[in-house]
Design goal:
The protein is α/β, with parallel strands linked by helices. The strands form 2 sheets. Strands 2-3-4-1-5 form a 5-stranded parallel beta sheet, sandwiched between helices. A 3-stranded antiparallel beta sheet has the order 6-8-7. The structure holds a DNA duplex (22 and 22 nucleotides).
DNA sequence: CATCCACAGGAAGATCTGGTAG
DNA sequence: CTACCAGATCTTCCTGTGGATG
């Protein structure tokens, strides 16, 4: 038997430490949500009005990422759907994540699709599609809940407020159906962007989600680990480590569960019978690395060039300003045969890179010598070179025989 | 202490893609 | 086929500004 056969056989015969991998996936909603009983109760009470045919309020949920906002909504909606079925009530729900559906048209499109209404993906005027969706919703003769998750992505654009305004007041235009809008945001300063009229109608009821504490994270992890792994695959102390690592950063339950899953995958790959603290630490680093890699790889070509320009400059000097980035960027454009964008646009790219956490910027005034952004690379420049070499054959060619002197200006 | 550098970043609009409707 | 639509992307034009320097 060849060595390859051996490896395959070994892997296939090995008993997996996973019992049920699915419970660690992002969109799994567990049977119970520990430490969210109060929030669930509140939301349930609000929506319960619907069971009696009344019009429930619009709801506004806010709290940081990974505090269970989405999970609570989905949990309550699932229960509501079950109840509605049992009592033969008309009820429909649409879940729209406005990070992905971040324009008025897309929001309407997704809402319609979720409600089983067929509309074209593009091509129509927003007013037309709104009209169409409105009529179809009325025809449903139902109580309809529209959940707008990560609503801040919609509101930060000017047109976003308009569509929200119309959605939150849609009931005035309906005769046979009732609509409740639930907005979810993790941006706590988000209210500033929101049109006052929308704010008042959306926050008829609001529910605040506090970050989980270490103990709470531990409980959540414990619950998931019991479902996900076979007995004895993970110790309490290891779970506590994951909880501590996650709580230290953010109290983000999603990240904690991610960490648990990846630690499990690493342990499995190694053929270990148990997830150790070592696996957790490896997972922790892997998560960080992967986020960075993925971020760089998914950058548009132009932004890659800007990032590369910054990385190249940063190897030589820690004082990288917009002006020098522009020069280096233009040089790279010339080499790669890319038409360069204007300074204004490049500045947007740099801000983008900052949002992604790849660089950080500070506006500094040098008095007589102007006022500009000082940009620093937040990740090792070698990482940038490496990932770009992998991701882009053209850039790989340039970086192949790269030496710091080649790019001297 | 006014000046002026080297930009930041808002507003508006041009261009282009990918679509519908009749 | 033409007329039209939304939205991404980018440009053009613009006003605003912290502080070293003359």
């Amino acid at each position: 038997m060849s060595i390859v056969d051996k490896i395959f056989d070994e892997v296939l015969n090995r008993k997996s430490i996973f019992k049920n991998r699915r419970v660690l996936s992002i969109d799994y909603v567990p049977e119970t949500l520990p430490h969210r009983e109060k929030e669930i109760e509140k939301l349930a009470k609000i929506l319960a009005t619907a069971l009696k045919g009344g019009k429930p309020s619009n709801v506004f949920e806010y709290g940081k990422t990974g505090t269970g906002k989405t999970a609570v909504i989905l949990y309550v909606l699932n229960k509501l759907i079950q109840k509605a079925k049992k009592y033969n009530l008309h009820f429909a729900a649409a879940y729209v994540n406005t990070r992905m559906y971040n324009t008025p048209y897309k929001v309407l499109y997704k809402t319609a699709t979720e409600l089983g209404i067929k509309v074209p993906r593009t091509g129509l005027a927003v007013a037309d599609i709104f009209e169409k969706v409105l009529r179809r919703i009325d025809m449903l003769e139902s109580f309809v809940v529209i959940v707008l998750d990560e609503i801040d992505y919609l509101v930060k654009k000017k047109e976003g407020n308009d569509i929200l305004y119309r959605l939150t007041r849609i009931n005035n235009e309906l005769e046979n159906s009732q609509v409740s809008v639930i907005g979810i945001t993790n941006d706590l300063r988000f209210k500033e962007f929101l049109d006052a009229r929308v704010l008042s109608s959306l926050s008829e009821e609001s529910i605040v989600f506090e970050p989980y504490t270490v103990e709470q994270l531990y409980d959540i992890l414990k619950q998931r680990a019991e479902l996900a792994f076979i007995d004895g695959a993970i110790d309490d102390s290891t779970l506590r480590l994951i909880a501590a690592l996650s709580a230290r950063e953010s109290g983000d339950a999603r990240k904690a569960i991610d960490l648990l899953r990846i630690a499990g995958e690493i342990a499995e790959r190694e053929g270990a019978e148990k997830i150790t603290e070592q696996h957790v630490r490896m997972a922790y680093e892997e998560v960080e690395r992967d986020i960075i890699k993925a971020a760089i790889k998914s950058l548009p070509h132009q932004e890659k060039l800007v990032l590369l320009a910054i990385a190249l400059l940063f190897t030589k000097s820690k004082k990288v300003t917009t002006g020098v980035v522009k020069k280096m960027y233009e040089k790279l454009c010339e080499i790669t045969g890319t038409p360069p964008v204007t300074l204004r646009r490049m500045n947007d790219f740099i801000n983008d890179l900052e949002t992604l956490g790849l660089v950080s910027c500070q506006i500094v005034s040098f008095g007589r010598y102007g006022r500009t952004k000082v940009i620093s690379l937040e990740i090792p420049s070698q990482t940038v070179f490496l990932v770009l070499t992998e991701a882009d054959p053209l850039l790989a060619e340039i970086l192949k025989d790269w030496s710091p002197f080649k790019f001297d200006t």
